[in-house]
Amino acid sequence: MSKRIDYLIVGQGIAGTLLAWFLEKAGQSFMIIDNDFADSSTNIAAGIINPITGRRFVKSWMIGDLLPFAKKTYEEIQDYLELPVYKEMEIIRYFQSNVEGNNWITKTSYEEYEQYLSSKKLEQDLSTIINNSGGYGIVHGAKVDLRILIKYYQLHYQSKGQLQIDTFDHSALQVDEDKVIYKSIEAKKVIFCEGYSACRNPWFKHLPYESAKGEVLLIKIPNFKTPYIIKKNQFLVPVGEDVYWFGSNYEWEDLTNTPTPSGRAYLEERLADILKVDYEVLDHMAAVRPVLKDRRPALGLHPEHDAIAILNGMGTKGTSIAPYWADRLVRFLLGEEGLNGEVDVRRFAYG
To answer: Does the domain made of 88-141+210-289 have the CATH classification 1.10.3720.10?
Structure first.
């Protein structure tokens, strides 16, 4: 006997978890199938929300819409969970050249950048820990504890019978005009939130993926208690008592989740440029980010199968952009609004 639901979600990373959150708010029933892959990009991400990008310090795409919505969503989830999920944090951007410093000065003179940038003096003296040869500026950012968020909802949905820990078998999915059937589950639609694994999805493997592997280190810096996220080429992010997340690099050829000696050497070389003090490496991890060629997410319906949908391609900005687009996909599926053409998966040609 089939279990009938509104939506079948494949993948419980940041995209799948937030999609479930908004579907539940909308009164829709769902089932999640997730393989609980420890080395997924969500599981090793630092959860940084950074509104400013690049050496020219430009505002991230649509940040005026994305940032307030992300803040509202994570604070709402935090209040519901009564767990420390979301925290606003200042990002200290160390300049690598005089050009960067001049670009910063120019941007801080623009009214539209006032809410994102600051040139105030730091409340904590970092000079004994951090190499600072070119000055710095402050970006008003935030951090989301993705491990708490994902793990809570994994246990929560398992307890309610809404999550199956299993590897999804694409060949077992029966697609009809107005429904899908997967083993004992019947749903109006299946929504794929598979991250990089979507490149092996028979319905979406044609998408122009330009995914990149990233390697990160978890390090211990004794007695360095800072409220700041440090950015000097890479990010140094406080994640626990004297424990910091550091990364990441970009590798375009080796798209495996295996940490490499060359990746570690690269990160340790960058750490030598940043830190004046000794540190201990606690862990070395790697994952592949789901990135599409045009650096925009992909959501919406398959052009030939209205019962198949996708929410993917969040890339390096997943923590910032996933809340907004998960909500917009739910609104679209419920017929409340259309999709922005920049993110509609049908913008890509299907072979």
So the answer is: no
- C-alpha to C-alpha distance for 50 and 112, rounded to whole angstroms: 16
Q: Residue 189 and residue 177: Cα distance in Å, rounded?
A: 10
Residue 102 in tokens = 């001049």
Q: What is the pLDDT of residues 281-333, one digit of tens each?
A: 999 999 988 889 999 999 999 999 999 999 999 988 999 999 999 999 999 99
Q: What is the number of residues in the chain?
A: 351
Q: Residue 161 contacts by C-beta under 8 Å, 6 or more apart in sequence?
A: none
**What span, in angstroms and rounded, lies between the C-alpha atoms of 242 and 225?**
6
Contact 92, 230 (CB under 8 A): yes
Burial (CB count <10 Å: 0-12, 13-18, 19+), residue 230: buried
Confidence (pTM): 0.94
Q: How many Å apart are CA 296 and CA 319, to the nearest integer?
A: 14
Using only C-alpha atoms, the chain has a radius of gyration, in whole angstroms, of 21
- Assign a CATH topology to domain 3-44+147-208+293-347: FAD/NAD(P)-binding domain (3.50.50)
- Closest to 28 (Cα-Cα) out of 322, 338, 302, 333: 333
User: What three-state secondary structure class fits 23?
Assistant: helix
User: What span, in angstroms and rounded, lies between the C-alpha atoms of 251 and 255?
Assistant: 7
Q: Is 45 exposed, middle or buried (0-12, 13-18, 19+ CB in 10 A)?
A: buried
* 333 closest CA partner among 23, 104, 91: 23
Q: Give dist(CA 133, CA 27) in Å, integer.
A: 54
CATH 3.30.9.10 domain position(s) in the chain = 88-141+210-289
pLDDT in tens, 118-175: 988 898 999 999 998 789 999 999 999 999 999 999 999 999 999 999 999 999 999 9
Instruction: Count H helices and E strands in the chain, helices first.
Output: 7, 19
Looking up tokens 């899908």 gives: 180
pLDDT computed for residue 39 by the predictor: 63
